[in-house]
Specification:
- It contains 20 helices and 3 strands.
- The protein is mainly α.
- The chain has a domain of 302 residues: alix/aip1 like domains (Serine Threonine Protein Phosphatase 5, Tetratricopeptide repeat), CATH 1.25.40.280.
- Strands 1-2-3 form a 3-stranded antiparallel β-sheet, with helices on one face.
- Strand 2 and strand 3 form a beta hairpin.
- The model has no long low-confidence stretch (mean pLDDT 83).
Length: 689
C-alpha cells in the first residue's frame, strides 16, 4: 500500500478584502499575499498588529473609533460590512486557515494542522454572526476536515515508513472518525444550506473516503492477524476490507482519475490479499472464520491536533508598532483573563466531548434511528415505484390477455409440431416392424435390390427435428413456467389499487407491542432533547465568553486586585456550568432507560424486520413481473416463429415419410411374392378320417 496513489484533498478559497480605513500599503500587503508559506507569515504578522491596535484604540463594535470593515463572503460572493476591527481580525484568521488548507492539499502534504488551529481559534474567540462562512457550524466542519486530512497525511507517511500494521490500522480508523464528524456536519440541513453547491461535492468525496480508509484499516488488521497466524481472522478482515472498498468504488463515480487510480490500485492489493488468504485457509489451515462483529473494533489513534494560534507571539508578529499608544498592563491583564476563560471553556468542552463520545458509541451500537424505528407509516401507502407500474398497466388493459393469447398460439403450434413428429416416428417404427416380420417369415434377410430410397433420409431428418424439438420444449416449458409465475402478478397490478395494497404484507402489533414502541420512541426523543439542550448550553457558553470583555474594568483595577476581579467575573458562568453538569449527569439514567426499552423492543424489532423484508420482497416481485412482461412477449413471439418454421418442415417431412413407407411396403410385397414363387408346391396329404 506504500505506493498507492494519493487521494485529493479539500481546500478552501480565500476571502477578498474590501473597505477598511487603514494604511493602504499595510492593507494591500496583508490581503494580497502570495499562496505560499511567506503569505502565511505575512497574515500572522498583520493579525498580531491588529490585535495590538484593538487593545489600545476603541475600534470595536459600537466604540468611538470604529470604522467600516468590508470583506466578501465566500459562498454567496456578497460584500459584508461591520464597524468592528475584530471582523478584520476574524477574516484575516479565516484566510490564514484557508491558505494553510490550500498548501496542505499540495504535493508536500503539510500545513493541515495549522489550518485546523486557525479555524479553532477563530471559532473559540470570535463572534459567529459576522458572516455565513464563519458560522460555528462551518468552522467546526472545516476543523474536522483539516484534522482528517492531517491524519490522512500521517497515514500516508506511516505506510511509506512501513510502520506496524496495528498502528497503521488505528491511524486509518481515526481518519474515518474525523471524516464521519465532517460528514455529520455536511448532512446537517442548516450546514448544507450555508455551503450551497459545494456541499454535494464535499459530501460525496468525504463519504467515499470514509469507506476507503475503513477498508485500509481492515486491510492492516488483516495483515496483523496474518502476522499473529490467526488465519480465520485474516480472511474476515480482508473480506470486510474488500466490501468497504467496493462501497467506496460505488461512491467514487464522477471523481477525478487520481481517485479512480487509487481505488484500482487498492483493489488489486486487497483483492489479491483476500483471494490468497481464503485459498490458504480453505486448503491448508481450515480455521473457522469468525463474524466481524465478534472481533474487537479498531479504535482510532488521534495523532494530530489543531496547532494553537497565539496572535501576540513576538516571534511571529514582530515588534509591536503600537507599543507607545497605551500602557500594556491592561492589555496583559486582559490576555490573562482571556486565558482563564479559555481554560474554563476547555474544561467544560472536555467533559462534553467525553460524554458525547460515549453517547455516539452507544447509539451506533443500538442502531436505532428515531425516524424509522417502526416504519409503520410506509405500510399505509403503495410505494411510488409500484404506483408507477400500476399506472402503466391501467392504460394497457389488454396486457394479460395479449400474453395469454400469445402463449396459447405458441402452445397450439407446439402441439401440432409434436403430433407431426410423433406420426413420423410411428410410421418409421411401423416400417421397421414390417421389415422384421418379413425377415422372420423368410428366415433370412431378404435381398435389397430395388429397395425404395428416402427412408434413411427421413429418419435422419426426423432425428434432427426431434432433437430441436426436445431442446425447444425445455425452453417452452420454462417460458410457460415464467408466464404462470408472472401472470397472477400482472393481473394484480392491472386491477384495483385496493387489491394491490391488500397484497402487500402489513405488521400486526398487539397493544403491548405498541406500548413498547411508544416507550422506545419517547426515550429516543429524550435522548435528542438531551443532545439539543447540551448543544444549546454549549453555544450559550461560547457566546457569553466571546462577549465577555472586562478591559474597562481592568484599566481601573490595581494589579494586586486582578486575581480577585477574575474570580468575581468568572462567577457569571457558574449557572450555565450547573445546567451543563445536570445535563451530563442525566445521560447515564437516560441510556439505562434506553437499554431496558431496547431489550423489550427486540422481539418487536425482529417481527417488524421480517414484515419489512416480506414487504420489500413482494414489491420487488411485482415490479419484476411488470418488467418481465415485454421479455415474455418477445420470447413468446420468437417461440411462435421457431415452431411455425418447424411445423412447415415437419409437415413436409411427414408427407415424405408417408410416401417412403408406402413405397417400402410395396417393395416388401414384391419380395414376398417373388420368394413364394421360388418354393415347390406342397405335397397333397391324405384326408383326415
Amino acid at each position: 500500500m506504500e505506493a498507492v496513489p494519493r487521494m485529493p484533498m479539500i481546500w478552501l478559497d480565500l476571502k477578498e478584502a474590501g473597505e477598511f480605513a487603514f494604511n493602504a500599503a499595510v492593507k494591500k500587503s496583508a490581503v494580497s499575499v502570495p499562496r505560499d508559506f511567506e503569505g502565511c507569515s505575512t497574515l500572522r504578522k498583520y493579525l498580531g498588529q491588529l490585535h495590538f491596535l484593538q487593545s489600545r484604540i476603541p475600534m470595536g463594535n459600537g466604540q468611538d473609533a470604529a470604522v467600516p470593515v468590508t470583506w466578501t463572503e465566500i459562498f454567496s460572493g456578497k460584500a459584508v460590512t461591520h464597524e468592528d476591527i475584530k471582523y478584520e481580525q476574524a477574516c484575516v484568521l479565516y484566510n490564514l486557515g484557508a491558505l494553510h488548507s490550500m498548501l496542505g492539499a499540495m504535493d508536500k502534504r503539510v500545513s493541515e494542522e495549522c489550518a485546523a488551529g486557525a479555524f479553532t481559534y477563530l471559532r473559540d474567540h470570535f463572534p459567529h454572526s459576522y458572516s455565513v462562512d464563519m458560522s460555528h457550524q462551518i468552522l467546526s466542519l472545516n476543523i474536522n476536515l483539516m484534522l482528517g486530512q492531517a491524519q490522512e497525511c500521517l497515514l500516508e507517511k506511516s505506510m511509506l515508513d512501513n510502520r506496524k500494521s496495528f498502528l497503521v490500522a488505528r491511524i486509518s480508523a481515526q481518519v474515518v472518525d474525523y471524516y464521519k464528524e465532517a460528514c455529520r456536519a455536511l448532512e446537517n440541513s442548516e450546514t448544507a444550506s450555508l455551503l450551497g453547491k459545494i456541499q454535494k461535492d464535499w459530501k460525496k468525496l468525504v463519504q467515499m473516503k470514509i469507506y476507503y480508509f475503513a477498508a485500509v484499516a481492515h486491510l492492516h488488521m488483516g495483515k496483523q492477524a496474518e502476522e499473529q497466524q490467526k488465519f480465520g481472522e485474516r480472511v474476515i478482515y480482508f473480506q470486510s476490507a474488500l466490501d468497504k472498498l467496493n462501497e467506496a468504488i460505488k461512491l467514487a463515480k464522477g471523481q477525478p482519475e487520481t481517485v479512480q487510480e487509487a481505488l484500482r490500485f487498492t483493489m488489486d492489493v486487497i483483492g489479491g490479499k483476500y483471494n490468497s488468504a481464503k485459498k490458504d485457509n480453505d486448503f491448508i489451515y481450515h480455521e473457522a472464520v469468525p463474524a466481524l462483529d465478534t472481533l474487537q473494533s479498531v479504535k482510532g489513534a488521534p495523532l494530530v491536533k489543531a496547532l494553537p494560534v497565539n496572535p501576540t507571539d513576538p516571534a511571529v508578529t514582530g515588534p509591536d508598532i503600537f507599543a507607545k499608544l497605551v500602557p500594556m498592563a491592561a492589555h496583559e491583564a486582559s490576555s490573562l483573563y482571556s486565558e482563564e476563560k479559555a481554560k474554563l471553556l476547555r474544561d467544560v468542552m472536555a467533559k462534553i466531548e467525553a460524554k458525547n463520545e460515549v453517547l455516539d458509541q452507544f447509539m451506533d451500537s443500538m442502531q436505532l434511528d428515531p425516524e424509522t424505528v417502526d416504519n409503520l407509516d410506509m405500510y399505509n401507502h403503495i410505494p411510488p415505484v409500484l404506483m408507477e407500474k400500476c399506472a402503466a398497466l391501467s392504460v394497457r388493459p389488454d396486457t394479460v390477455r395479449n400474453l395469454v393469447q400469445s402463449m396459447q398460439v405458441l402452445s397450439g403450434v407446439f402441439t401440432d409440431v409434436e403430433a407431426s413428429l410423433k406420426e413420423i416416428r410411428d410410421l418409421l417404427e411401423e416400417d421397421e416392424a414390417q421389415e422384421r416380420k418379413l425377415q422372420e417369415l423368410l428366415g433370412r434377410v431378404p435381398p435389397a435390390p430395388g429397395s425404395p430410397p428416402g427412408l434413411a433420409e427421413v429418419s435422419k431428418e426426423c432425428s434432427k427435428y426431434l432433437e430441436l424439438h426436445e431442446k425447444a420444449s425445455f425452453t417452452n416449458t420454462e417460458l410457460h413456467r415464467a408466464m404462470n409465475l408472472h401472470l397472477g402478478n400482472l393481473r394484480l397490478l392491472g386491477g384495483p389499487l385496493e387489491q394491490v395494497r391488500a397484497a402487500l404484507p402489513t405488521p400486526t402489533l398487539s397493544e403491548e407491542d405498541k406500548q413498547v414502541l411508544q416507550n422506545l420512541k419517547r426515550i429516543l426523543a429524550k435522548v435528542q432533547e438531551m443532545r439539543d439542550q447540551r448543544m444549546s448550553l454549549e453555544q450559550q457558553l461560547r457566546e457569553m465568553i466571546q462577549k465577555d470583555d472586562i478591559t474597562t474594568s481592568l484599566v481601573t483595577t490595581d494589579r494586586s486586585e486582578m486575581k480577585k476581579l477574575f474570580e468575581e467575573q468568572l462567577k457569571k458562568y457558574d449557572q450555565l456550568k450547573v445546567y451543563l453538569e445536570q445535563n451530563l449527569a442525566a445521560q447515564e439514567n437516560v441510556l439505562k432507560a434506553l437499554t431496558d426499552a431496547n431489550v423489550k423492543y427486540a422481539a418487536v424489532r425482529k417481527a417488524l424486520a421480517e414484515v419489512e423484508h416480506k414487504w420489500n420482497t413482494t414489491v420487488q416481485t411485482l415490479v419484476a413481473s411488470y418488467e418481465a412482461y415485454e421479455d415474455l412477449m418477445k420470447k413468446s413471439q420468437e417461440g411462435k416463429d421457431f415452431y411455425t418454421d418447424l411445423e412447415g418442415k415437419a409437415a413436409k417431412l411427414l408427407e415424405r415419410a408417408r410416401a417412403a413407407c408406402q413405397a417400402s411396403e410395396a417393395h416388401r410385397q414384391q419380395l414376398l411374392e417373388r420368394e413364394l414363387k421360388k418354393q415347390p408346391p406342397p405335397r397333397p396329404t391324405a384326408p383326415k378320417p
